[in-house]
Amino acid sequence: MTGQETKSSQISDEELIKRFQDGDLYAFDLIVSRYKDQLFNFTYRFLGSAQEAEDVVQETFLRIFRNRFAYRQIAKFSTWIYTIAGNLAKTELRKRKRRKIVYISDLGFDDKEYEIEDVKANTEREVESSLAEKHIQKAIEELPERFRKVILLVDVQELPYEEVSKILHLPLGTVKSRINRARLKLQAKLGDLMDRQK
Amino acid sequence: MKICDRIVKEAFNYWDGMLTGQEQEEISTHIRTCPHCEKRFAQARQIRQALRNLPKLKTSPHFHLLLHARMRREVNRKRALLPLPITGWAWQVPAYAAAAIILIAGGIFIDQVINQRAPDSRSIYTNSTAAETVVIPVQQTEQAAPSRIKNYVMQPIPMERLLSMNRRHAAGQQQQLERRPADTSRAGLQRPQENLSGVRQVSAPVQF
Ligand SMILES: [Zn+2]
Questions:
Q1: Environment class of residue B84 by beta-carbon count within 10 Å: exposed (0-12), middle (13-18) or buried (19+)?
Q2: For the segment B154-200, what is each residue's pLDDT rounded down to a tens digit?
Q3: Residues 4-63 of A with CB under 8 A from B
Q4: Which ranges of B84-181 does DSSP label H, i.e. alpha helix?
Q5: What is the CATH number of domain A110-198?
Q6: CB contact, 8 Å: B194 with chain A?
Q7: Range(s) for CATH 1.10.1740.10 in chain A?
Q8: Which residue of B has its CA nearest to A192?
Q9: Which residues from B are below 8 Å from A61, CB to CB?
Q10: pTM of this prediction?
């Protein structure tokens, strides 16, 4: 890692967007590098299609590029970017419904271009061997949109409740009750499967 | 069973330590003694773990490249809406256009001044006895916008016809003629003629 990279990783998102607003395109590139994969994971889990997910992430960054001056330092940058990505993903989902395309959760990752990060096998991943990822993805996709988003933000992206509340424009209490209901729904879907696998 | 439902709902809050000490204690006691809740808790924990450990995907390798291309397109599209930068020879185009407009406008102004001073000596259609000017309605679009200036171009009129028209006018036959006693300065001036080379010229007043 170069000295510049070490230094750039210490710069806050808010500082980067400020620099970008001042015309520094390198700062924008750093933002892209910082967020592209996590946004891709979020939109992919939400949509279940890698191509659509990547399009949404591209469009998210284009919106940021286009509307850079709309961002005000009062809000956290991550909240802003997740709000944009979430809204675009929702729009994409509605477009798809209009097109009446049905996506069956096909997590074979036939598109080899989407690389899976090599997560080392360890005790933390012990569950995954017993619970196939494709079943989880299918169960997530079957959740109503409002539950899907909240479970992805809280349990997959592991964002704090306060931030999720801002992203979804919901009171904190609503986020908490919604995440509980989402988890129970997911558990109802996956419980039987887990029992059968035992 | 009612307590079981409530306890299962609180599983995540329990793990996250978001409950009061008393509630935490109540739950831990319950799951130790209720096999149903113990099982549900174990499931919930497994699901939470599975969600956290979902494989982390990366965008395609050409993500940056594609984004940069789209950003460039965005910038170019915006640039296309802006006026051309005044660099190199490009400044000459608007400069020549402005100069041409000034010359034409200046010519019209000077001509109007001259004609206001000598109204009866300006027009090809002047009736010398009545000292009034008669304008031939060449086209119906006389009041048209300047962008339609082609409609103003006069048709060449043969000399014999001009003479006969003048005679008719003098004889009071005004059916094809329009009287314009007040606005004497316009005819023949704001109607540019095209010469053979295609360059539009302001027609000079021809006098009888
Ligand atoms: Zn119980």
A1: exposed
A2: 445 555 554 555 555 555 544 444 444 444 344 333 333 433 343 33
A3: 29, 32, 36-37, 40-41, 44-45, 50, 54, 57-58, 61-62
A4: 92-117, 159-170
A5: 1.10.10.10
A6: no
A7: 11-106
A8: B43
A9: 67
A10: 0.62
